[in-house]
Predict the 3D structure of the following.
Amino acid sequence: MAKGKLIVFSAPSGSGKTTIVRHLLTEKALGLDFSISATSRQARGQEEQGKDYYFLSPEEFKKKAEADAFLEWEEVYTDNCYGTLKSELDRIWSMGKHVVFDIDVIGGLNIKKQFPEETLAVFVKPPSVEEMEKRLRLRQTDSEEKILERVAKAEKEISYAKDFDVILINDDLEVAKKDAFNLVNNFIQK
Ligand code: 5GP
């Protein structure tokens, strides 16, 4: 099977990376498909099973980890595990597409390490941690406790930005979308 490329977007949550990834998926010329992660957290808001995530019970998640079904997985937040299933790469590559990931910083670097030549690892940086905290509050999907947990994690995550291939600053969303398109387009032509 011909392998496609891997495009990783990692960032603290509230940095706008999901919006950027969704935008790139609408750009048909890029030929991207989304790597649907598995998670043991509950679905929130409008999220759908098998579209946003494969929602698994903690037991199901553990079984898959033991069966070595994950390319990478992590307990990203207390009791909430997230991971990339190996079967996602086969699913997407078999359609002749490139895989795009919306995953956390450690997971993103882990994928880059496993596929150094084929991966473009992009770190999406919010203009500031204060701005990110504001965006999380506006989103109204997380409790105060979760928001504070995410903010604390973000500060640590930003220190890994230097290990990525590119840092994309999301100051102005429209500019960031265009920059992301150009980065990916150049990489897949290589
Ligand atoms: P959320 O709960 O906001 O959907 O995601 C929480 C965090 O988990 C985000 O930083 C998200 O990028 C990360 N995440 C989602 N899927 C994966 C995955 O497959 N692996 C890893 N390592 N992190 C993931």
In short: The pocket of guanosine-5'-monophosphate is lined by residues 13, 37, 41, 72, 74, 76, 82-84, 102-104, 106-107 (CB under 6 Å). The chain has seven helices and nine strands. The first helix runs from residue 17 to 26. The chain has a mean pLDDT of 93.
